[in-house]
Amino acid sequence: MAVRALWFSRGALVILDQRELPQRTHLRRLTTLAGVADAIRTLAVRGAPSIGVAAAYGMVLASREGRYTPARAARLLGATRPTAVDLFHGIEAVRRAWADGADPLAAADAYKDRIVEECHRIGTAGAPLFRSTRRVLTHCNAGALATVEWGTALAPLRVARQRGAHLFVWVDETRPLLQGSRLTAWELAQERIPHAVIADNAAGHFFRTGQVDAVIVGADRIARNGDFANKIGTYEKAVLAHENGVPFYVAAPWSTFDARRARGTSIPVEERSEDEVLAFAGRPTAPRQSHARNPAFDVTPARYVTAFVTPSGVVRPRAVARALDRAA
Ligand code: MRU
């Protein structure tokens, strides 16, 4: 894999600081729980599976600092971002080991290895869907940066391309923080995968004029009935896909499924600072007196999903609960 979002080395969590891409590939060494929490909160590390793995290593660092109990460290990391359920799965994997006197680092490594392996399996499970699809639209960044390696939405595209598919990717820029244009386009450019960045509000035009053959996105939390939360703007892309008869796929490892949540209506949606909307590249873009709203995610009803691409294969929304129970 050309891109790797984070790794643990010599007592530190090393992250590729995603706030600085694509201008700079800057590695940051984090040695404390507070540093990891801040990196997650400020999106230096982001994307549901990467957040979970970073938090797992944050628990490892906390166990070495000598000032936290496992429960307190879990609480502090769990307060960083509310929507991605992976965060809580990553924390819990290490909290349990630490509380039981087992090796926290071994637990975090095992959690990370599982995520990477599951994302690779998503790639092989999903690639056949794109064998003869040409133009694929994706939203936000669900690539290697968001998952440590491979990606979720990007994994099937990577594998399909390795197998000779001729793919072209429409990359939603993904306002307000531009995860599409800054991060997805960067990943695709690294691998010379043909793509074009489009303004978020241009997607309808490309659907309407028959230039989108399929959509694939990642997720931050998937309920048992197949409703799912993902980056703000995903819902409208799902409605556009439905309206235009375009298949809409959601790719995710098991850590993104919330086995205890019956439906998506109760998924907590993170609301971030209004400053992210009122400025662009550090410059104000609205009058000083104006306020903004900034929900970071929306919830898409299962009826808009053609299928989920999971590590165990392609699953229809109606079969999510059964697949989840089998994977548990
Ligand atoms: O706010 P972000 O950048 O962490 O949001 C990320 C997304 O919404 C991704 O699509 C999602 O986490 C899936 S990543 C494989």
**How widely separated are the two ends?**
28 Å
Please state roughly what percent of the residues sit in beta strands, choosing from under 5%, 5-15%, 15-25%, 25-35%, 35-45% or over 45%: 15-25%
Mean pLDDT: 97
| Name of the CATH architecture of the largest domain | 3-Layer(aba) Sandwich
Record the SSE blueprint.
Elements: E1 6-9, E2 12-16, E3 27-30, H1 33-41, H2 48-65, H3 70-78, H4 85-99, H5 104-126, E4 135-138, H6 144-147, H7 154-162, E5 168-172, H8 179-190, E6 195-198, H9 203-208, E7 214-217, E8 221-222, E9 228-231, H10 234-243, E10 248-251, H11 275-278, E11 279-280, E12 283-284, E13 297-300, E14 307-310, E15 313-315, H12 320-327
Parallel strand pairs: 4-5, 4-7, 5-6, 7-10, 10-14
Antiparallel strand pairs: 1-2, 2-3, 8-9, 9-13, 11-12, 14-15
Bound molecules: 5-S-methyl-1-O-phosphono-5-thio-D-ribulose.
5-S-methyl-1-O-phosphono-5-thio-D-ribulose binds at residues 43, 46-49, 84, 140, 142, 146-147, 152, 179, 217-220, 230-231, 296.
Compose a concise summary of this entry:
With 328 residues, the protein is α/β, with parallel strands linked by helices.
Can you tell me about this structure?
Helix 2 (48-65) packs antiparallel against helix 3 (70-78) and helix 3 packs antiparallel against helix 4. This protein starts with 5 loop residues before the first strand and ends with a helix. It has 328 residues and is α/β, with parallel strands linked by helices. The chain folds into 2 domains: 6-118, translation initiation factor eif-2b, domain 1 (Four Helix Bundle (Hemerythrin (Met), subunit A)), CATH 1.20.120.420; 121-327, Rossmann fold (3-Layer(aba) Sandwich). It has 12 helices and 15 strands. The mean pLDDT is 97. The chain has helices at 33-41, 48-65, 70-78, 85-99, 104-126, 144-147, 154-162, 179-190, 203-208, 234-243, 275-278, 320-327, and strands at 6-9, 12-16, 27-30, 135-138, 168-172, 195-198, 214-217, 221-222, 228-231, 248-251, 279-280, 283-284, 297-300, 307-310, 313-315. The structure holds 5-S-methyl-1-O-phosphono-5-thio-D-ribulose (MRU). Residues 43, 46-49, 84, 140, 142, 146-147, 152, 179, 217-220, 230-231, 296 line the site of 5-S-methyl-1-O-phosphono-5-thio-D-ribulose.
